[in-house]
Amino acid sequence: MEGSFDEECDYLFKAVLIGDSAVGKSNLLSRFARDEFLLDSKPTIGVDFAYRNIKVADKLIKAQIWDTAGQERFRAVTSSYYRGALGALLVYDITRKTTFENMKKWLHELRKFGDSNMVVVLAGNKSDLGHSREVDVEEGRSFAKLEGLCFLETSARENLNVEEAFLQMITKIYEVTSQKNL
Ligand code: GDP
To answer: Which of 25, 48, 107, 174 has the fewest CB atoms within 10 Å, measured from its CB?
Structure first.
């Protein structure tokens, strides 16, 4: 809650949410940040972000997660969105094949604008809608393997693997960052 917001933290990590419109990015973020977050609306730059404090290996990490706030519709997600980001959650909707096909394009953009060491987790969201599935779990998994990404299927609606997806990303960022600081 607000109290923990002022706590001294050992690390501050910025991470971004990326993917087509309506794949569930903002719902994933509000799931993850629920009860412990502060959602700051920044209408001037068209970006939302939320914070959450997490303990990893006895270190207090303040994770600042950015959401595109609908700007991806206008192709207005620019280099400033990616600047300083150490991680990305790349989200597609398992019931819409095009959102999965567009992962290549998002990944390309991420690699063009983002840090080369960025930790990327691929999330196939809406796993609760298995009956309307257009993307097999295997397709997601093999794309992730090919591109060297972590992979999970999530459901923001049913709260499945949401915590895991963010925690995997943050833990990995911590590993990469603490290795660099050795
Ligand atoms: P964004 O544009 O990527 O931020 O997507 P939103 O979070 O706004 O979600 C778009 C739509 O998908 C909304 O109608 C949500 O209720 C729905 N949605 C998001 N996540 C899930 C999910 O895991 N399962 C289901 N069934 N619907 C979802």
So the answer is: 107
The alpha carbons of the chain give a radius of gyration, in whole angstroms, of 16
CB of 68 closer than 6 A to ligand 1? no
Complex-level ipTM: 0.99
What is the tally of structural domains in the chain?
A: 1
In a domain, 68, yes or no: yes
| Ligand 1 proximity of 160 Cβ (cutoff 6 Å) | no
Pocket of ligand 1 contains residue 25 by CB under 6 Å = yes
Give the CB-side neighbour count of residue 171, counting CA atoms within 13 A.
10
Tens-place pLDDT, residues 72-114: 777 667 888 899 999 999 999 999 999 999 999 999 999 999 9
Domain that residue 41 falls in? 11-181
CATH number (domain holding residue 161): 3.40.50.300
Task: Decide if 5 is inside a domain.
Answer: no
89 C-alpha vs ligand 1 centroid, how far in Å?
15
